[in-house]
């Protein structure tokens, strides 16, 4: 059979890789746009502890039968801020076990199913009117394209089995010494890295072993290399993602490399153990059987499947106690001083246990909203190029957006039907303040982006600095602990130019600044003007309700309810 290398190999491999990467991007975008807090709560239950994470990874991967797809999904979830590094490490450990649970089902037609799901999801995405449905369809489309892309890549490499040169090379391989063992492991790792599927590699190896092309020991050695090569896909998936996503991929790589390095010196000992264990699964895998007049080795796939399962279970049991060590070590990879800053994607004051106590929950919401405001004010540090500011405005905005959703969700959950009107009014006021704060943060994000994207001449830079100082001073109205220092001057003597004055100075720059600079400054002034409107609106919202009074009365009512009947607060007087 003639094989067209371009059409049968290069086209599906390159096309599959592109579809795979596009699917990853679609899935990450869809997940991020959906309700992140609900997704995070679900994953917290499924992978709240290392043991639960291993179980979740094992079960999910056992169903989808692809540790590669599972690892890529975990990397995408970490990049979206849905799952943290520690639970992601345990989930990937479980994924390594889960992929071995159904090696006999490797030939499942997941690729065509993925294409159908992608097509249906794309139609839903194009015709849906609801933004939520669009985001769900986008995530489903990405998930399906991952499978379809992997299927294309696997199919593109499959014709290599019909090339005599490839087959003659495989027949010369024999894991009868440590040197040849390493050769088999690295070849299998290379093939798996190219195909992007350890399950596909193991399936091919099972077929070659059952046909007698590879002896069973060599087939087992190839399965060891497949576990090493499968780490390449998650590494590729993390190349353009966040640092924690990269660290998740590094965790996958670390587990498998350590496991392979430990297993290789024990390989021939483990083969003897496997020979003994095979007595309970049919006998010696090296003994051929005649089936339909052909000599076959049907126990080789059984031996390969057993060894692969044993390797991953052994590796997980060995490394599971060191999850904390892996997290600490990986957290230092690519670490910068900016990462020591506070993580604003996680609420600090919102405690679900306080939600039933109005008098305690309201101050918690106020503290978290003020913290959100502080995070938004940090965009001024980014605009000024402060060394203590977050390095990436986009990542910092993503963190504030997640925090904003958590605040709104928590505050809305405080609304109970039996609450007095004044308490419901206060909750509504807090929700509005949180919404204005989110809008203010978005405006300040735009300020930082516009300043960082443009290189200004000295006259233009002076206007930019004056605009930033004006916004910084305005922030003191609602955030007294942040901003530039108050000038040590009599009241009324410190003033900042109005936006109209700064706009006029920008237009008057003339030849001292290019058109792009002036356009950027005008857009910047527009963002600052919107930010100042929101600052005044937040200040007015805080004053619209006597918050302290409502909380004090709620606290007094709660104390009255908790006071035992008959307790009037007076000391008992002896009867005369």
Automatic annotation (TrEMBL):
GO CC, any one term: plasma membrane
Main location class: membrane
Compartments, record wording: Cell membrane
Keywords associated with the record: Cell membrane, Membrane, Transmembrane, Transmembrane helix
Region (Disordered): 549-576
Residues annotated as transmembrane: 12-31, 43-64, 70-89, 101-124, 136-157, 249-274, 304-326
Top-level lineage group: Bacteria
Annotated membrane topology: Multi-pass membrane protein
One Gene Ontology molecular-function label: sodium:phosphate symporter activity
GO biological process, one term: sodium-dependent phosphate transport
Keyword match Iron: no
Protein name from the UniProt record: Na/Pi cotransporter family protein
Species annotation: Mesorhizobium waimense
């Amino acid at each position: 059979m003639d094989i067209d290398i371009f059409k049968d190999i290069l086209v599906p491999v390159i096309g599959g890789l592109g579809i795979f990467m596009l699917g990853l991007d679609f899935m990450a975008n869809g997940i991020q746009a959906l309700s992140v807090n609900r997704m995070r709560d679900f994953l917290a239950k499924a992978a709240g502890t290392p043991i639960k994470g291993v179980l979740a990874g094992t079960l999910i991967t056992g169903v989808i039968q692809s540790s590669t797809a599972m690892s890529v999904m975990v990397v995408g979830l970490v990049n979206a801020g849905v799952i943290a590094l520690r639970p992601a490490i345990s989930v990937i450990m479980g994924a390594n076990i889960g992929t071995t649970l159904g090696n006999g089902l490797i030939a499942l037609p997941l690729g065509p199913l993925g294409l159908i799901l992608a097509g249906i999801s794309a139609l839903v995405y194009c015709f849906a009117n609801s933004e939520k449905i669009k985001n769900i369809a986008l995530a489903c489309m990405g998930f399906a394209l991952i499978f379809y892309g992997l299927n294309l890549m696997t199919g593109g490499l499959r014709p290599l089995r019909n090339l005599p040169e490839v087959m003659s090379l495989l027949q010369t391989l024999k894991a009868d010494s440590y040197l040849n063992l390493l050769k088999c492991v690295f070849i299998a790792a290379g093939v798996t890295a190219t195909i992007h599927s350890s399950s596909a590699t193991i399936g091919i190896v099972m077929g070659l072993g059952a046909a007698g092309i590879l002896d069973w020991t060599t087939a087992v050695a190839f399965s060891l290399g497949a576990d090493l090569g499968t780490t390449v896909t998650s590494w590729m998936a993390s190349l353009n993602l966040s640092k924690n996503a990269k660290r998740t991929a590094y965790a996958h790589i670390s587990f498998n490399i350590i496991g392979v390095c430990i297993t290789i010196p024990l390989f021939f000992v483990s083969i003897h153990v496997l020979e003994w264990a095979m007595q309970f699964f049919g006998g010696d895998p090296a003994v051929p059987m005649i089936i339909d007049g052909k000599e076959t080795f049907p126990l080789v796939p059984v031996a390969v499947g057993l060894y692969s399962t044993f390797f991953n279970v052994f590796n997980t049991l060995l490394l599971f106690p060191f999850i904390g060590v892996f997290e600490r070590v990986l957290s230092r990879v690519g670490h910068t001083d900016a990462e020591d800053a506070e993580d604003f994607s996680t609420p600090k004051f919102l405690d679900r246990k306080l939600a039933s106590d109005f008098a305690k929950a309201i101050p918690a919401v106020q503290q978290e909203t003020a913290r959100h405001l502080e995070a938004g004010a940090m965009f001024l540090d980014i605009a000024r190029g402060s060394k203590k500011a977050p390095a990436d405005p986009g990542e910092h905005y993503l963190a504030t957006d997640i925090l904003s959703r958590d605040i709104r969700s928590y505050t809305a959950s405080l609304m109970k039907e039996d609450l007095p009107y004044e308490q419901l009014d206060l909750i509504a006021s807090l929700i509005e303040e949180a919404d204005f704060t989110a809008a203010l943060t978005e405006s300040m994000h735009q300020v930082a982006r516009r300043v960082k994207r443009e290189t200004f001449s000295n006259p233009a830079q002076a206007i930019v600095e004056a605009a930033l100082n004006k916004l910084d001073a305005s922030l003191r109205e609602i955030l007294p602990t942040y901003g530039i220092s108050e000038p040590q001057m009599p009241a009324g003597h410190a003033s900042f130019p109005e936006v109209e004055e700064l706009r006029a100075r920008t237009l008057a720059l003339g030849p001292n600044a290019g058109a792009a600079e002036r356009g950027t400054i005008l857009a910047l002034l527009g963002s600052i003007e919107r930010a100042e409107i929101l600052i005044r609106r937040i200040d007015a919202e805080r004053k619209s309700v006597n918050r302290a009074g409502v909380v004090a009365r709620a606290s007094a009512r709660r104390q009255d309810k908790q006071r035992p009947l008959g307790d009037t607060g007076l000391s008992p007087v002896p009867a005369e």
